[in-house]
Amino acid sequence: MEKERLERLKLQNHYKDLKSYVDKDTSDLIAEVQERDAVIESMNDKLNDLDNLEQLEAQLDWERKERKIDEQKITELRMAISQDKKDIVADSERKSDMIRQLKSTLTDAKTNLERARYKQREIIANNQRLRADNQALQKELDDLKAKGVLGLLLIRRSKI
Fold first, then answer.
1. Rounded distance, CA 97 to CA 42, Å?
2. For residue 33, what is the DSSP state?
3. Global pTM value
4. CA 29 to CA 23: how far, in whole Å?
């Protein structure tokens, strides 16, 4: 029995040693697997970064193309604005010329109106003088008619 007990104790110790060895190997393997998983994860991250980099490069290329298009549109708009400015300046100059001509015409019209008013006042004054003269002549004529009729009557009476 003693022999069995020793044998069993020996087997238990051997089992413990094996278990300890297996546990250590298992833990080493787990650590190694975790290390490899970390390396794989790092590589996957780097691959993702490369994929992201390719996407970023594609997006950057697209942005560059869009920027060129925008710059071209801006250049076209600047040219259009420049032409519009030239047109506005030319139109403004034409309008300024028209305004100067209209002011000159208005000045001439005012001058002509003043002349016409002056002449109108002269005509009114002449008409008033002519009426006064006409009235005086009418009175004189009436006086002459009255005298002439009296004179004729007197002459006719004296002939009778």
1. 79
2. H
3. 0.42
4. 10
